[in-house]
Amino acid sequence: LAVQTYWGTNKASADINFDKVVDKKDMDFIVKNFELKNPTVSNAPKPKTSYKGATLDTVLSQLGLK
């Protein structure tokens, strides 16, 4: 949700690829890695699909990416 909050800014904490802008490239990284588990951990927790009622699909829609 930090990517959504700081969309279009240069906020370093939300800029996943450190290109000085929070944009689609950062969101593409999230989409690519969404719901992945660490394969080296035998009892990894189940990934969450929502946070405070927001899902990946709703965030993508609100940003105009879906």
Q: pLDDT below 50 for ≥5 consecutive residues: which ranges?
A: none
Largest sheet: 2 strands, antiparallel
Task: Based on Cα principal axes, name the global outline.
Answer: globular
The tally of helices reads 3
Number of domains: 1
Q: What is the typical, i.e. mean, pLDDT? A: 96
Q: Give the C-alpha Rg.
A: 13 Å
Please indicate the percent range of residues in DSSP E strands (runs of 2 or more).
5-15%
Number of strand segments: 2
Oligomerization status of the protein chains: single chain
Task: Determine the structural class based on helices, strands and strand pairing.
Answer: mainly alpha
Strand-and-helix sequence, N→C?
HHEEH
End-to-end Cα distance: 16 Å
Helix % is 25-40%
Cross-sheet strand order for the largest sheet: 1-2
